[in-house]
Amino acid sequence: MELIKQEIRYAIRILARNPLFAVVAILTLALGIGANSAIFSAVYGVLLKPLPYEDPDKLVMLLSTRKDGSFMTLSPADLQDYSKSESFEQTAAFTTETLDLTGKGEPERLPTAFVSWNFFNVLGVQPLYGRGFLEQEGKYGAEKVVVLGHGLWKRRFASDPRIVGSSVMLNGTKRTVIGVAPPGFEYPAEMQVWGVLAFSPHELDSSQRGAHWIRAIGRLAPGVTLEQAQARLRAVAADLAKRYPRSNEFVGGTVQPFHGFLVRKSKPALLVLWASVGFVLLIACVNVTNLLLAQAARRESEVAIRTALGAGRLRLFRQFLVESLVLSIVASFVGLMIGLWCTELLIKFGSSSVPALAQMKLDSSILLFTLTVSILTGVLIGLIPALQSVQKSMPQKLKSGVRVAGNNRVRRGLAIVEIATALILLSGAGLLIKSFYKLMQVDPGFRAEGVLSFEVSLPDATYSKPHQASTFYSDFINRLKTHGEVRSAGAVFGLPLTQGFNAGTSFALIGKPAPKDEPSAGLRVITPEYFQTMGIPVLSGRNFLDSDTNQSGDVVIISESAAKNYYPNENPIGQKIDIHVNLVERESQERTIIGVVGNVRFGGLETNPGPDLYIPHSQQQLNAMMVVVRTSGDPQNLAPVVREELRKMDSNLPVSRMQTMEEVVGDSLGQRKFTMFLLAAFAGVGLFLAALGTYGVLSFQVVQRTQEIGIRMALGARRRDVLKLVLQEGLFLAVAGTLIGFVGVLGTTRFLESLVYGISTLDGATFASVMILLSAVALLACYLPALRATKVDPITTLHYE
Length: 801
Known about the structure:
This protein is α+β, with helices and mostly antiparallel strands.
């Protein structure tokens, strides 16, 4: 131990004698270590950290599947049959909506989950205060009770534990508070209130099996594996398909790991970012290794003297490793500070795209990861210089002199590795940037500019009669249209690109043979001026009219995709369909097609527009609608007008989710933008470090070859000859690094397939652009040492000789 202490003190003295070298090396390593710590915080928090539930590995999602294998929500009747499987200890359903909290203080819209009575039991979560739901509270028509979220309880009710047992007004209905959720529990994402989901006899009727609108979780029974549960659920789904062919013939069932299903959209991007930041650390390590090789070359006389005085090769090897470890450990502390700062930026700018990022925090796992990375980095950067320094015999060292370098081939090889790695990073960033640009050019099917959107939800207790919702929205829209800057206004249930909205329905084509696959489509409810406000063209037929009410014939408008899919060689206008899903209870859902409108990309800009059905709000009156208003100026300026007009109509109604449609489009691309920005930033850092490494290698070679260059110039070599000599060396490094990097690109960019749109992961134009950029930067890095070489004075050099 005393020997190690001596070596540590000696390493510190060596670094103190070379402050510029120490600062550059520490900052370079800190950048790589800090970035790795930040991204690992995200990867650990989102992908690796166990969920805070009892036996989380036993939790699964129960899902319906379409014929193409894609997932969809369940119908209550199907879930009832799935739950009878011996695979599950318990299952619980849930759905989400937003409710208005009124009474004390300002009205507020709250994300609310309605869950089965055993929801908290399935997850193994105990309320902080009070209790969870009881079985009798889960029966249809039972008393209305709720559990409050911890954040809402602190913010709105001043952390008062006496809230348990009192009442709150949600959507005009008095509900008894029976508990307060523990800190950090917000599942489903960002929920602030949990109420009981109780199915009505109508919802559980087999005629409603086509109504897929709930999600479900389950806990596997003891001894049951995921594969067994999947096989049993598929068998139940196959039996339901035989018994209920109209609704279930093309519907399957599956079980997915709970955690894996939650992170399925974030996982590819986070793994790509983690790999990218690993490349940045590799480039940083190569840079510092080259610096240490240069230092070792300058210390050959010192090493020779220590060898002459009896120091063995093992002792010298250990000393060089200790010096590199001291460098990396100091860098890890600086890197941890950088990592904390980067983590805050990730949370600030990325939590809206990857919600789980908001839960990231520094803990022992992150500290252990940072320590491990710093030790491995220290060994990695010190190994080659240590081996280079002890491989020569003592006579060779004494003859070499301080100006003779070690093995330049190693340093050139490391520079080539830097360039190759930078090319891989730049190629990945280039693909994401081009893909994002392609997405921005996609027509969403509507005109987003100048449109303001917001949600208004009418309390069921106050607006309980069927006509009240239609009357309210009609009056409210007419009030908004009296303002000069408002060009048109409408309302919709199912705003395009809105996350989490997936209402859809199967339907039958009346008077036509049943197709091989049962027709299905997205289901939207709109007011008459919605298409005009959103700039969605009516391609044939007519729009909805104010006269399309329950007293007139039931009508529907279909999208162009639905017309092409289900009426490929005929005019759909006048045809009838029978919709299988009732958003509100009706005796009949047989409707006449009166129009065809343009396709809208509801699911995202990267998804192909599917078939959609539009129903007039006056015939499917819903209390919660998204209002859209097209203005002649900045739509945000209309926000005070909206709130004032709503207050005049009902002072208890809050406005929520107010955004311009341009912001809605931007948010739909949030995760792609987040991933693209980070990968581009890492690629930029990698390019800078690679250029710095190339510059360092050539600069050191120029210093080494000063005498040779001086002799060449004394013998008649011109400055441009010397310039060419150094540039050729730099060009060799750039070409070799590019060729090796291109091979790496071919092997790595395939992992970006799920992150790119509209281009191939082997896009030639992107690779050509990246190679040109990398070559230009490499040549710039070469030019400065070459310019210095041309300024060597041959007289001074010969005089020195």
